[in-house]
Amino acid sequence: MSKKIHSQDLASSIESWIKERLSVKSEVFNGLPPCPYAQSAWLEGKVTTHYLNGTFPLNIHIPAEIENYTYHWPKGCEVVVLGFDPLSILPSTLSEIIDNSSDMLSKRGYTALEDHPFEREEVSGVWLNNGTWALVLIQPTEKLVEARQWLETKDYYKNWDPNYKESVQSR
Asked: What is the mean pLDDT of the chain?
């Protein structure tokens, strides 16, 4: 398959994930969807997807793309999603790559969150993972902090395990 087909598959999968999982209101999140901002960002064209096809080793390619995007942030973009085959990287290796990038991300004002289908993420039975791709989601930290503060005022986190909440918010 060509790189273009995989890129289209990634974008289609992200769109389905947003519409079918992240934008569905749930009492678990106090009547809000798991990611209240995802659908509007997607519909407004503020999400950039980038498929990493394995041409380069992912332990080199992922940090290079994180550095590239945080240096040359796409105009009007709120989230950059790097997607790749989950069979090509272990969840622990992906977490290590993100951890090793944290100083550079912090200095540039960005946060990167990983999502790997082999490491299920859920809150009170609501499954949050994409489930198909291994992902790195890069966002400006300031916007993420503002969103989290607003969600706190809506009792969004009331059903979250305190340890899980801390692990997500400390990334």
From this structure: 93
